[in-house]
Every structure is written in C-alpha cells, then in structure tokens.
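Design job #97: recover the sequence.
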C-alpha cells in the first residue's frame, strides 16, 4: 500500500491570499495526488474484500456456474463476481 506523507504546516496562504502562520506548527496536510492514489487503492481493496465475501458466502449453484465459466478463454473473475453481486443486490431489492 502506498504511504501518504504528512507535512507540518508552519505558514500557508488562505484562498483569499492572506498569510496564515502557526506557532510552532499548524495542522498536518497531505498532497492531493498522494491522497487520491491512496483513496483509489483503498477502494480497490474494498472491492476485493467484497468479492472475497461473495465467493465465501455464495450459494453452491452460483459457484458451479462460475467454475464452468472459468474454463473459457475470456473469463475474468473480477467481472463475474461484480455481475453476481449486482444480480444478488437486484434480487434482494425485489424481495418484500
């Protein structure tokens, strides 16, 4: 996982251009690019965790279908898990 470095603010500019000074230092800040990268990595890990949970709790009938599809050349487990999760979500919404 990517590390996000925190910087201690001593002086900074406000949006209106005024100088803000802190003694001895102010809040910690991170670079927006590093934050966005870390956020994307966390989102990918969350999706992987959801897929793992699906595989762990999935009905045997669905797993048999996935196992049969796994022999196809263009099989992608992530895509199939996303499809199954969407299908399960739709059936849960349809139930009273």
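Job complete. Output follows.
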């Amino acid at each position: 996982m990517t590390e996000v470095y925190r910087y201690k603010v001593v002086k900074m500019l406000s949006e209106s251009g005024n100088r803000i000074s802190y003694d001895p230092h102010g809040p910690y800040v991170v670079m927006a690019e590093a934050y966005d990268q870390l956020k994307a990595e966390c989102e990918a890990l969350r999706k992987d965790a959801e897929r793992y949970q699906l595989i762990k709790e999935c009905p045997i009938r669905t797993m048999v279908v996935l196992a049969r599809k796994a022999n196809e050349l263009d099989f992608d487990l992530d895509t199939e898990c996303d499809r199954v999760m969407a299908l399960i979500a739709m059936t849960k919404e349809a139930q009273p």
